[in-house]
Sequence to fold (519 residues):
Amino acid sequence: LRVNLDIAKLIYCSWINQDKEIPETIARNSTIPEELGRNEYLFSDKTGTLTQNFMIFKKLFCLDKQFSADDVQAALSFDNYKGPSNDPTKSSSKVIKRDNNIVLQDMITGLAICHNVTPIVNQDGSRDFQASSPDEIALVKYAESLGIILEERDPSSCVLSYPNNVKHRYEILGNFPFSSKTKRMGIIVRQLETQKIIFYLKGAEVKLEKKVCPEYSPIIKEAAELLALDGLRTLVIAQKELSENDYSKWLQEHTEAKLSMMDREKKVQKTIKTLEKNMLLLGITGVEDKLQENVAQAVDSLKSAGIRVWMLTGDKVETAKCIAISSGIKSKSERFHVLQNLKDDREIIDCALKEAEKGAERCILVIDGGSLDFALKRSESLFFEVAAKTQGVVCCRCSPTQKTLIVNKMKTLTNKRCAAIGDGGNDVGMIQEGDCGIGIVGKEGMQASLAADFSITKFMHVTRLLLWHGRLSYKRSSSLGQFVVHRGLIITTVSYTHLTLPTILLVQISVVAVSLKKK
Fold:
């Protein structure tokens, strides 16, 4: 039976690889093709999985004013611009309102500096960019459209060219890359023309609203909500000027932390946090990530087949809700039930979950990262019991660790078959935790594809993979198993009838004959 099933599975996988309707699909695991047809839940990443991971700059909030991508060009002027300005926000305990043009100048300069993008000149003379995130490339390209061109970039310096035919050179004194844990990145630069030292910080609004001066926090919250209602990904950028003494003192502490033999990472992060205080807000950007082709139709087909789709994303609640509607995770007949900003109290969490349980059959549960963390810690069983009754779940501000944990707990606590799909390295844990892991070859590389059981190129291909190949493989394996068992019974019965029974009769006759002879 085992040999026959293994041969059949190899054939199923070859059919998947050769299917022209889902080109470039690869079955990397030949032992579980029939498992594709048994899944009840599909856990999906958003960026690069449901969306194209192709970012387009759309809107910008500069303090209390909103600009579209085209409006900025008209409002911005770089005449006589000499680099990042001094911080005039505080003077005798009074807030001085900055000129919008100065803030815009500093913000676009910050977008052109605070990143890990490297410009590349191709053989034909065209310029291209390399970066770990398409968000950063979108922002650098937008700065370039406004006339600030990233001419050169290496680990120690960068050169910017401005519309007034002036080049500014910056020495990179420190670089703190983005991570899923910190949700922000920072860079310290020295402008060589003016010798000013500027610390730029950009990241998620939930992190930076605590880093800027208190009077800017309401502006960040309001702007982020407005941008998220349009389905845009938000990013906050701030700056701070450092004196030579402040920088020298910080550098000494930072160097000692990096050389520490005990708790090095904690000490390094602690020194970085000393810089992240009373930052000057520059603005909030909104970029659009368009949906992939036929995503809504694919999700609708999966839901019609009884597969419930969960979206696990790092975006904020409002953005995730917009994508859930446009991608078809939430239908017109369903409603959102939002669990947000829950406190670390079991009674409060249990009450909120029981409230969500009412009418869960026509509900899409939306929960943010902090509330999810408390729910998993205080009421894990109840959370998954309620979530399993809903039509789908949207987890916002979700870390890679939380994604993996959700898939694992859903399998163990509900005994449901779960598939996971993603496109980036931060989705690998989730993909490998699922009963069936599906990786999409995207702009973030091949990590997800290589770690998955099945590799596809578009999300829309998952419907044919699960509903056609998965279902047929499951039915064929079932039929083959029954055939092999029945064939074995028939062969055994025939063998016993024609070979074993005559032998037994011959032995009995011989015994009787011997006995009669003795008598």
